[in-house]
Design goal:
- Helix content is 50%, strand content 11%.
- The protein has a five-stranded parallel beta sheet, with helices on both faces.
- α1 packs across α5, α7 crosses α9 and α8 packs across α9.
- The longest helix is centred in the last third of the chain and has 15 residues.
- It is globular, with a radius of gyration of 17 Å.
- Keywords: DNA-binding, Phosphoprotein.
- GO terms for molecular function: DNA binding.
- It holds the Pfam family GerE.
Amino acid sequence: MNILIVDDHPLFRHALIHAVRYSLPQAQINETASVTEFYTRLEQGPEPDLVLLDLHLPGASGFSALVHVRAQYPAIPIVVVSAHEEVAVIQRALAHGAVAYIPKSAPPQHIGEALHAVLAGDTWAPPNLPMSSNDPRARDEADFAERIKTLTPQQFRVLMMVAEGLLNKQIAYMLDVSEATIKAHVTAIFRKLGVQNRTQAVLAISTLNVDEPKL
């Protein structure tokens, strides 16, 4: 059993590793701190049997990483582990393909329940969660999520860098490719997302955003 934890907070990764080992003592656990590291590990293989994914990560925007990884690696079950406890956020995560949602405040027994349920092929959500959603953004969000799924992994990386406000030459330098290659990627991204420019792309991405959790 190969489990990958994706979270940029070292202290919480450490705590989650212990919680997972308590429930699954034979599991091999790996960890990454960003979406870039996450994709590198997926591309280099072997694929993990289960991913525990935070929503707020360097190199991602809200649910974008969840949506895109689910499209590129549909066989990998993804459990969202987040500080968010709002019903709407939990419902959105499950609607975008998470097989379970574990709030970071959940007791250890809930983590164990969720992991065993997912590994048995089931889904899991916090007890007593209402499953109906009246969020008026749901249709627009679902439509954009379908477009995100059509991007290649490299196009997804470029899109996230565009969302951070980086110029083509900066993106080219960071990805070690030519600026012409980045321009070609950006053109393809705009076409797939149905937008005309960077501003529209960033506005579209915002439909998948999640506000920072309230402390």
